[in-house]
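Q: For a teaching handout, I want to show students what a protein-ligand complex looks like in token form. Below are the inputs, and the small molecule is zinc ion. Please produce the holo structure.
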Amino acid sequence: MKSKSILSLALAALLLLNLCGCENMVSAFSSHSALLEQGEAFWADMRENQQFGEAVTVTEQNSPLAYILQYPKTEHPAIDARIEEIVAEIRSDFEESHYPSEEENSPKHTLLLGYETYITEETQLSLVFFESDQTEGEEYPRSHIRMFHFDLKEDKEVPAKELVWDGFRENASAYARNFFTTTEPYKSQLPDNYTKLLKPKRFSRFALTDTGVLFCFEQGRLFPESLGDIHLLIPYDKMRAVAAPVPKHDKNKPWVALTFDDGPNPKHTTTILNTLEAYDAVAAFFDLGKLVDLYPYIPRRAEALGCEVGSHSYNHSNFYYLSNAQIAADVQATGTAFQKALGRQPSIFRPPYGNCDARIESQIPMASVLWSVDTLDWKSRNASAILKAVKDSGDLNGKVILMHGIYESSAKATALLVPYLLEEGYELVTVSELIEAKSGEKPQPNKLYGYSYFG
Ligand code: ZN
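A: Here is the structure, written as tokens, with zinc ion included.
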């Protein structure tokens, strides 16, 4: 295969150049000094962060591809071999992404490679490679950052996961969210989906420095390309602090709550949860105690995804026709089901059929929650009709949407509705989160949050 021969050629070329002491190597092609000049501009900012190793410089012009590379030589044989292997991989990736492009007028591509090295505790070396893949005629290069760790004493590479501690990613994520939402020029240029882009799992690539942990974001990945590569250095005390709770929802967006009654249903509630998980969204489920007894793993999964699970009575009784003693028995049976499945009592309640009055309310030791957008999903049993009902409801800010988790059509509608609402700029929240945002306090027991509350 072609890529393999390119790789071995690249390796051979590197070894050869390396032997020559490349700082003053004259390229076999013309314009070596022009390439070097371009490299010096690219490397200028990295100089002060090259704490270890001697720079090896390689320039090559092999039309339409040019290489302007710099990487460190550490005098640790196994580490140097590994670094050369990484550089060969970088060259090979660059070549593969531009071959075949050997026609006369194909655009010229230049690979610029620079690095920073950081030393901590005398033997811990972090290496950051900055690649810039520039195509003639294009305004912005493609930028790529790779980070590696080495133990100088042992002369070997160390996997990043061996260097992190408890709360490492969570702390980094919390710090980055706070920093980028309060500091210009980032604050005003954050993309809508920044919470997703700054999730803890995005902080597994880093360099350890004298003063803190360095994270780098490629040009154009988080902010507009004009801001270039972003460096974020988080001091060690912030990285070691007990992780601050990460705000779950964006307060600057309109909030809407999806609710699903009558479940859990092993098929359709599961499909709904799959959709919510795929979009990193949440909803509230008002479950029947008797079904929680049968399928306790479903509300457990819902909670694990950040969704809210409340009571919808044990057996879907019409509470208008229940005596106070019967209501108490229902509350107790449902509470036992929740206790077994989730280890707690339900704190919110949706009365079946929405039937609630002052007498019933006084008997219910939970917040009773109705809705303000009725999709009539039980009636239409049609996903596009359900979607239309929501679209026809105007501004959804602060509203609670009623659906049922037991129909295939409602599960299908959810798969359309969630991306629709997110694209419209809504933040999907739970009912309790919505009430807390509106009232400044948690949903109160023996209180009805009725249709007009979410109007
Ligand atoms: Zn119901």
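A: Two things your students might notice: The chain is about 35% helix and 20% strand. The two ends are 65 Å apart (CA to CA).
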